[in-house]
Write a structure and sequence with these properties.
151 residues; alpha/beta; Ribosomal Protein L13p, Chain: A; 5 helices; 26% helix; Ribosomal_uL13_bac-type; ribosomal protein; ribonucleoprotein; Large ribosomal subunit protein uL13; mRNA binding
Length: 151
């Protein structure tokens, strides 16, 4: 046999097939939801997955304000940030963020599961998170999927 009967296909920006999907975050556990969303954004659920290419789908997450955390994490977990000034350390709980900016929890959880590179930043732009059930992407005809149906 001189040649292979199959070829390894490597996707590139021109050959990638990107779809739009909607995920409802109502009563979903934050970490489990974020890991599935990160998998879809990265394209790891597709047979044409290529590590160095943005080959994932666009993901719309609705009802982000209804996500839940297990145990006492809603009040005991602490997000820390720093303003850059002396004494500028600030602390907030998930309950605080749900009251002020409900999309923050999902965005931060998913961002932590993506590569910390330019590719990760590009992939993060494919994530759209909304606090309510309405979203402005009806023209893209997104497909609603359930988290337990993702392979």
């Amino acid at each position: 046999m001189d040649s292979l009967s199959y070829k390894t296909i490597s996707a590139n920006a021109a050959t990638v097939d990107k779809q739009w999907v909607v995920i409802d975050a109502t009563d979903e556990v934050l970490g489990r939801l974020a890991s599935q969303v990160a998998k879809i954004l990265r394209g790891k659920n597709k047979p044409s997955y290529t590590p160095h290419v943005d080959c994932g789908d666009y993901v719309i997450v609705i009802n982000a304000d209804k996500v839940k955390l297990t145990g006492k994490k809603m009040t005991d977990k602490v997000y820390t940030r720093h303003t850059g000034f002396p004494g500028g350390q600030r602390f907030a709980t998930p309950a605080d963020y749900l009251a002020k900016k409900p999309t923050f929890l999902i965005e931060k959880a998913v961002k932590g599961m993506l590569p910390k590179t330019r590719l990760g930043e590009a992939i993060m732009k494919n994530l759209k998170v909304y606090a309510g059930a309405e979203h402005p992407h009806a023209a893209q005809n997104p497909k609603a999927i359930k988290l337990n149906e993702i392979k």
